[in-house]
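Revision sheet: structure tokens.
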Amino acid sequence: MPRPAADPQSHPGCCGSCTSYFTSAKFLLYLGHSLSTWGDRMWHFAVSVFLVELYGNSLLLTAVYGLVVAGSVLLLGAIIGDWVDKTSRLKVAQTSLIVQNVSVIFCGILLMIVFLYKAQLLTMYHGWLLTLCYILVITIANTANLASTATAITIQRDWVVVVAGENRSKLADMNATIRRIDQLTNILAPMAVGQIMTFGSPVIGCGFISGWNLISMCVEYALLWKVYQKTPALAHKMNLKVEESELKQLNIQKESELKPTEGAQLMEEKDARVFDPKQEENVSCLSRMAEPFVTFRDGWVAYYNQSVFLAGMGLAFLYMTVLGFDCITTGYAYTQGLSGSTLSLLMGASAITGIMGTVAFTWLRRKCGLVRTGLISGVAQLSSLVLCVISVFMPGSPLDLTVSPFADISARLFESDPLPTMVPLEVPFTTGMPPVVNGSTLEPGLAPTSVPLVSVSLLFAGVIAARVGLWSFDLTVTQLLQENVIESERGIINGVQNSMNYLLDLLHFIMVILAPNPEAFGLLVLISVSFVAIGHIMYFWFAQKTLGKNVFLCHTPEQKFVADQPASCDASSA
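Predicted:
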């Protein structure tokens, strides 16, 4: 008997599967995030270099920009998150996308004008016009960063959850993929724009970034609209605050249906209030002025009352560290004799281990559950950072506790010769200053003294290895916030979380300012490891409250799913 012909619709084949994937909301979200992150990384790298070039190879403008950015997110994080909660998803995504890209475009054009006509601007109005341009550049760049913060909150903390639906494994895979995109763009985007600026000029770099953001904005806008159309659930947004206001109105209507005498009394009181419209206007103006402060307070109170508060605080404490690939650590590495090419290779290795951390997260979550994945990640990170602690006491370490950490600051105040300070990697190449190796300045034409690389090698080995645990832990806390924060508070809670991250990041910069000489860097390493340990202790406390005595027992996937339910995160279950 001949078999019936197979239905082609039931087996679409390889081509059909590929087409289905590349047109899915998940892939379009990845593509939009890739374009957005690429533009962000190019701009964040380039703006720091541009500010250094503009101000005579000084780090003053870069430091001011970093302080303004950190302070703005710290103060406005909760307010931005509250706006995300109260506004429709599509409007938030589109508005933040347009504001971010238009700000970068305007800032790029302004920087081009300053680079081309800096000499003329310097002579106009005794240089005040040039100072105004600097202020405008920092202000517009800060606006772009705030809009980028809003974009990150709405896409990475809200849209991803809705697109994943009720499938937690899909949510974990999407979070991990987004982090892999971040890791790759962190390395490739600065390399690309750096080549353009090296072989071209800062003006060409500004023009390229402005053009990129203009094209990227149009493509991202279309991708957002496609994702919104393919995911009908994005159109439905629960807002408890609106529901509460509607309930209050219903209560008022019910109270109005009272006895005639009581109704007459209420009418008299209402008439008495109507006769004083100016007082009502004053109260309304005062309430509007106080609304941002109330939102700020309510956001932090709501964050404190979350069941995942300790997990979020644990993540924030990991930002109080010099053990990362920022200008501080790379500047210290340069003082220890590492070349720029070596540092670029180390940064590439850190990206690879970061991607390994995202892979480890998905595997551990399936085997041990979400909460225990954070515990294992914390142990892995702290174990790797032991190498950093050992490096402080190994040959080649410039640690010298007899040198005051404030010697450089006091030397500058009293106009004496300061100790050599840690400088970012770009400074020696852009200024032509003689290099600094292990705390001693080299004169031109002299060969550098041999510096033991044992200490700095162990330091970077620990930093690179710790990225596996760091990114796995970051993904764990991210998904805990996504799963355990109610939909109507996702924006404000994640806004406060960003504020906490920036606060601890700001403290780590202040720590470096107070102890900038290489002799004190070992002390900064020990302080950094201590803060990381405190962060993981907070997470352990959260895990113990969540899982109780079973905190160290790995379950099967079915048992783990029950253990990870949001209800089990209540502190009262311990």
